[in-house]
Write a structure and sequence with these properties.
The structure holds two protein chains of two kinds.
Chain A lengths: L1 H7 L14 H29 L7 H4 L14 H25 L3 H31 L2 E5 L2 E5 L15 H9 L2 H11 L5 H6 L2 H7 L8 E2 L4 H32 L2 H5 L3 H26 L1
Parallel strand pairs in A: 1-3
Antiparallel strand pairs in A: 1-2
Chain B lengths: L17 H34 L5 H26 L7 H11 L1 H23 L1 H7 L23
Helix pairs in contact in B: 1-2, 4-5
Classes of the chains: A mainly alpha, B mainly alpha.
């Protein structure tokens, strides 16, 4: 058994690697450790800013959409799909690395291909989520008037809910176009042109104050941190997919077959698992707490 | 299992038979999925509590702490089983894990710093406190709005 043999070996007496690990794999581990500090620094900076605010948006109010479900309120649904995609693609990578240990080219190709599919699926989900957040406009109270804004790095539509006289006053101050958009979100009795042609007071009266959920603008830092950190993670996923594609092409061209071992797949696997590992923490910091 | 020559640095190969490997992978996949499902359930509990009229801050905090611990458990399984760090030589594991202990200081120091900044601002900048503290609970979206006095300040 390897364990008893390793216990008796004098690892530091020279002539062998004391870590029993090939150079490239060891350096991949140290790279990943430094990358963990980069991600850690980003997430801790986010935590620091979040703790310095009296108000922070509720993630369940922000991330509650699902493709094809319209305006249904489904908190945590889409992000759990993304999380499971990454877990499963991690499993297929484990299988690819294992097939490599057995010098089984056919299985390496099969599981690498599935891992790449998982990576693309995750990137597609992220693209949809970003697009939805940036282009989905929400009636937001900014400087006394209501404006239709999306979630960007400059404005955050997820502040505290506004009601009562403040909301009434804000409706009076808002433009005809914004009011028409708010009304048509909740009822389809009038067409957009009819609403635009109405006297403003009639339009204000059409807004059901109990039904519309109009929020103040929230902390601006939210957008920058969300897009910055998920974007940096998405970039890692993208580069992981590129690395996996390179591995797939090299496997197909018998590069590893001729070399006699598939250790390169192991290094690519380490990077891919790290991407999954980081997502576990991104999921925690942005969606769960 | 057939091994051809590999890197010269490796003195001993870590041999594992097919059956144990399959069992390990399936077990870890199930553990990761179950923990994720538990996390999602806790997330939904927190969401329902936030919607409620008077969420208990300490219970919410306890649930959030629990999710953090579950996440660390997931990280442990990914690193030790999927990344095979558990199979490496102890000295090598330590060169990775010991530097990561820096995170203990890193997290505590910066979170405490952010919190202290908030408290100082609330003490010395009343306008900041009044214009950023929510009057009602921010999650109470599904409840009938109560009339409230307009807040001073531009927000």
């Amino acid at each position: 058994m390897a364990t008893t043999a390793t216990a008796q070996t004098k690892w530091w007496s020279g002539g062998k690697s004391p870590f029993n690990t090939e150079y490239g794999k060891l350096m991949m581990w140290y790279f990943l450790m430094s990358d963990a500090f980069t991600f850690g620094a980003f997430l801790i900076s986010y935590g620091s800013i979040r703790f310095s605010q009296n108000f922070w948006p509720d993630p369940n109010a922000v991330f509650n959409a699902f493709p094809g479900a319209g305006h249904a309120n489904l908190p945590l649904a889409f992000v759990s799909v993304m999380t499971f995609i990454l877990i499963i693609s991690s499993v297929t990578m484990v299988l690819a690395v294992h097939a490599g240990h057995n010098n089984n080219k056919k299985d390496v190709v099969k599981w690498l291909a599935w891992t790449i599919v998982g990576g693309f699926a995750f990137l597609g989900c992220q693209a949809w989520e970003w697009h939805h957040l940036i282009t989905g406009e929400h009636a937001t109270l900014i400087d006394g008037t209501i404006q239709m804004v999306g979630q960007t790095t400059r404005v955050n539509p997820w502040g505290d809910l506004v009601h009562g006289p403040e909301l009434t006053a804000a409706l009076q101050n808002s433009t005809q176009h914004t009011l028409a958009q708010i009304v048509s979100e909740h009822s389809h009795t009038y067409t957009h042109d009819q609403l635009m042609g109405m006297p403003k007071q009639q339009l204000v009266d059409l807004v059901n104050e109990a039904e519309v959920h109009i929020r103040r603008n929230g902390p601006v830092a939210f957008g920058g941190y969300f897009y910055g950190i998920t974007g940096f993670h998405g970039f890692h996923v993208f580069s992981g997919v590129v690395i996996n594609i390179v591995m797939l092409v090299m496997t197909q061209n018998n590069v590893f077959e001729n070399r006699g071992h598939y250790l390169m797949i192991e290094k690519a696997g380490l990077y891919w698992h790290f991407v999954d590992l980081v997502w576990v923490f991104v999921f925690l910091c942005f969606y769960l707490i | 299992m057939q091994h051809t020559e590999s890197a010269s640095e490796i003195t001993f190969h870590h041999h594992i038979d097919e059956k144990t490997f399959k069992r390990n992978v399936i077990r870890t996949t199930v553990i990761l999925s179950v923990i994720t499902v538990i996390e999602l359930v806790i997330g939904l509990i927190i969401y329902t509590m936030h919607k409620g009229p008077d969420p208990n801050t300490y219970v919410v905090l306890a649930f959030k702490g629990l999710v953090c611990i579950l996440t660390l458990a997931k990280a442990y399984y990914i690193v030790s089983v999927f990344m095979h760090l558990g199979d490496e030589i102890r000295n090598m594991i330590m060169t990775i894990v010991v530097p990561l202990l820096l995170f203990v200081w890193f997290i505590i120091a910066f979170i405490v710093d952010g919190n202290s900044y908030k408290n100082l601002r609330n003490d010395y900048d009343k306008h900041f406190q009044e214009s950023t503290t929510p009057a009602s609970h921010h999650g109470a979206a599904e409840h009938a709005p109560e009339p409230e006095a307009p807040k001073p300040g531009k927000q």
